[in-house]
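Notes from the 1:1 (GR / supervisor)

We went over the backlog. Supervisor wanted to see one worked example end to end before approving the batch request, so GR pasted a single chain during the call. The sequence is below; no edits were made to it. Supervisor asked that the structure be written out right there so they could see what the output format looks like.
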Amino acid sequence: MNGFFDIYTLLFLVLAVVVFLRLRSVLGRRTGQERPPFDPYSRTSEAPASNDKVVTLPQRQGDTRPASRDAAAARHDWGEFAPAGTPLAKGFDAIHAADRTFDPKGFLQGAGAAYEMIVTAFAEGDRKTLKNLLSPEVYENFERAITDRESRGETMSSSFVGIDKAEIKDAGVSGRDAFVTVRFVSELVTVTRDRDGEIIAGDPKRVDETVDVWTFARDTSSRDPNWRLVETSSAD
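Structure output shown during the call:
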């Protein structure tokens, strides 16, 4: 009886090993079509190693020869983002002249990601994240508000529901700095509690609409393509 059991046990073990080797040969094989993990803050090979900026502009790959006149004109057609001849379109043109990689659509995607990160980091008192995303002046204001909140023993939680709308309102170049102003309409659930855990502001069951107007900027003479938040304001 023991010999019978041992023989069948051995057969099943051999079969399991064969199946495992077959699966590994198929599942472990690279085809060259794998996609790299998506990272909205990934840097190009030319970017500095430090992470003191945010909102990466999409980089065009491939042919780096000067574009033809027709191709250049096509890139200056900003479509739905800014009708030709408007102040906003001229602002885009000025940025594009300093940075050929500028793309309003890609910028808005990065700015939206930065907006969510900043709102969440402020609620959590995450100074490290904020310092990497904000200009020194804006960071100082955020840090002061966090310190005041902590000194009163208050805590803040913010659940980010989503961005309903993000629209570029202004853009241009001042000196070496390019700037883009974005109006965000978002939905948040924000609650502030005192040191005893009692709610003193907000409602955990209520979704509030928030409208913010934020300006991002970057030094166009820098090879780092990333942007930082340099100004914030609220809008009705």
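Supervisor's comment: Residues 16-55, 57-75 have pLDDT under 50 and may be disordered.
Batch request approved.
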